[in-house]
Specification:
single chain, about 375 residues, mainly beta, Glucose Oxidase, domain 1
Length: about 375
């Protein structure tokens, strides 16, 4: 069976999500397997070694390197405060002594009698990893982190910037084709994940920042708007590390793109619920999608449907990812077996799709991605 060219995009009211939460270096895991955690619960912590500074004490005192250990008032391993005297010369007849003060608060790492240099280290920086989503700890990775599992509604986007945030979903657009204008962003958006319609404009970003919104979710955004917001052009590397005070997620693509009706209605149904949101995106190998995850309040009922194994089937929802028709969503109505000549005059496997306006088109299978739901 032929496969979709790109990974499926998840837009579903009920799925199982597992999130691996790891420290950047070994530390302490704070929760046990089977524990129930909330999104802001700390599940692991460690300390990053502080920055190192080198001070040429021998040169500053005008003394030979081999004399430096005897001139130190503090020894290796001692704690020291900023501007505290750490070394003093013998002076001339006990007078005219020179002093060296510490430029930092921290500790003395080492004192060298060969170079006359002293290495200082700033205090360690605590690093904590939270659960990100509410759920159950299903695995503990010793000294590194945990895996948190939850049943949730999940909306994946096409592109995003900004890191992980949590907040209550607040839909401000009346329809999926209404642009994100500053007028619809009110003080009620403070601390919220704000959902618009078709386009995020620069003025809306400025307004969202001024009222303290956590994230904006909409159908599309212009490249120029991203450039103005970030201050630089987006490259092909992974996003998500931006520290601009706001996470942006677009669900359809670049330009004015009407949010898919199905996506908009699902977000509307989640109004007032707490969501975990991440703009991190990687479009090369190892695809990472921006996401909005809302843990289910009632986890009973029908179990989530297993995702398709990458194969296209009649009845599936797909999104067109190339022109013509980029961004449009439709249902697969046919999967012809024989190769057909396409617009480029090459022969390829195709599929037949009924779009949301009931028109039917025939496309190369590589021109679509599956929408899992």
């Amino acid at each position: 069976m032929a496969h979709a060219y790109t990974p499926g995009l998840k837009v579903t009211a009920h799925t199982v999500v597992s999130k691996e939460r790891r420290l950047p270096l070994p530390g302490e895991v704070k929760v046990a397997k089977g524990a129930r955690v909330k999104g802001d619960d700390i599940v692991a912590r460690t300390e990053l070694p502080g920055n190192v500074q080198t001070l040429n004490v021998g040169g500053l005192l005008g003394s030979p390197p081999e004399d430096v250990p005897q001139l130190m008032l503090k020894k290796a391993g001692d704690q020291i405060e900023k501007d505290e005297v750490m070394a003093r010369s013998k002076g001339l007849f006990g007078l005219f002594k020179s002093e060296v003060k510490s430029p930092i608060t921290g500790s003395i790492e080492s004192v060298s009698a060969i170079t006359g240099q002293v290495i200082l280290r700033e205090p360690p920086q605590p690093v904590q990893v939270d659960a990100y989503v509410e759920g159950e700890v299903t695995e503990v990775i010793e000294r590194e982190g945990v895996v948190v599992r939850t049943e949730a509604s999940m909306i994946q986007g096409i592109f995003g910037v900004g890191g992980e945030v949590r907040g209550v979903i607040h839909v401000v657009a009346k329809s999926p084709d209404e642009p994100f204008t500053p007028e619809i962003i009110t003080e009620d958006c403070r601390g919220r994940i704000v959902v618009g319609g078709s386009l995020i404009i620069p003025e809306a970003i400025e307004r969202a920042l001024s009222v303290g919104a956590k994230a904006l979710v909409a159908g599309g955004v212009e490249d120029a708007t991203l450039r103005k917001f970030l201050g630089y052009d987006i490259g092909v590397a992974i996003t998500g590390s931006e520290r601009k005070g706001l996470t942006l997620i677009v669900t359809e693509g670049f330009g004015r793109m009407r949010m898919a009706e199905r996506t908009f209605e699902l977000l509307k149904s989640l109004e007032g619920r707490t969501a975990s949101c991440n703009g991190a995106t990687q479009i090369r190998a190892g695809v990472i999608r921006p996401e909005v995850i809302v843990p289910l309040e009632d986890k009973g009922g029908v179990a989530p449907r297993a995702a398709a194994e990458g194969g296209l089937e009649t009845g599936m929802l797909v999104r067109i990812i190339r022109e013509p028709g980029f961004g449009r969503i439709g249902k697969v109505t046919g999967l012809p077996v024989e190769l057909r000549q396409v617009e480029s005059e090459a022969k390829a496997r195709v599929l037949e799709v009924e779009l949301d306006d009931k028109t039917r088109v025939t496309l190369p299978r590589a021109n679509v991605e599956i929408i899992e739901g």
